[in-house]
Amino acid sequence: MTERPLSEIKFLVLHHSVTSKDATIDQIREMHIARGYSDIGYHYLINSGGLKEGRGIGFRGAHALSEKAPYLNTDMNRAGVGLCIIGDFSEGPPDDALINEAAFTVKRIAGKLGIKLDRKHIIPHGSVSYTACPGKGTMEKLYAKLEI
Ligand SMILES: [Zn+2]
User: Fold this and answer.
1) Could you tell me the distance, in angstroms and rounded to a whole number, from the CA of residue 46 to the centre of ligand 1?
2) Which domain holds residue 98?
3) 82-115 pLDDT tens trace
4) In angstroms, what is the span from residue 132 Cα to ligand 1's centroid?
5) How far is ligand 1, taken at its centre, from the CA of residue 86, in Å?
């Protein structure tokens, strides 16, 4: 894995795992390694049990290519922190408890790393890549909870 200085981190990129909500970190890690990644692609993951660590924050992630404007040519795997909400929210957003957990985690990570708490820096995977990740209504519900 490629190391990166924490000072280059400017974005927090939200994902969903598109798995069962009961999927474990080890199961998601195995899926990513099977895709050829050297480790789990995300830096952090959350479920109803709280925050879990993925790959180390000091390493470039493997969670977001940036082929869409306005983030085109930004190496989001280097400039971003990948935060995955475990579950499949393709049909609708996480429940209130999980959104509360996500909002708490976003604030904590953003505060710790100096990421601006606004919609330009707390972003859905789908704003940088051609994907619906992190699902339907997830960001709207998260932004509302964050009051941003
Ligand atoms: Zn994603």
Assistant:
1) 14
2) 6-146
3) 999 999 999 999 999 999 999 999 999 999 999 9
4) 8
5) 11
Q: Which helix (H) or strand (E) holds 101?
A: helix 96-113
Distance 80 CA to ligand 1 centre (A): 12
Share of the chain above pLDDT 90, in %: 97
Q: Give the Å distance between the CA of 85 and the centre of ligand 1.
A: 9
Q: For residues 148 and 145, what is the distance between their CA atoms, to the nearest angstrom? A: 8
6 C-alpha to ligand 1 centroid (Å): 21
Given this model, what pLDDT does residue 51 score?
94
Is 109 inside any structural domain? yes
Both tokens of 113, joined, read 């790393």
When divided into structural domains, the chain yields a total of: 1
pLDDT band, very low/low/confident/very high, at 1 (cuts 50, 70, 90): confident
| 90, 20 contact by CB (below 8 A) | no
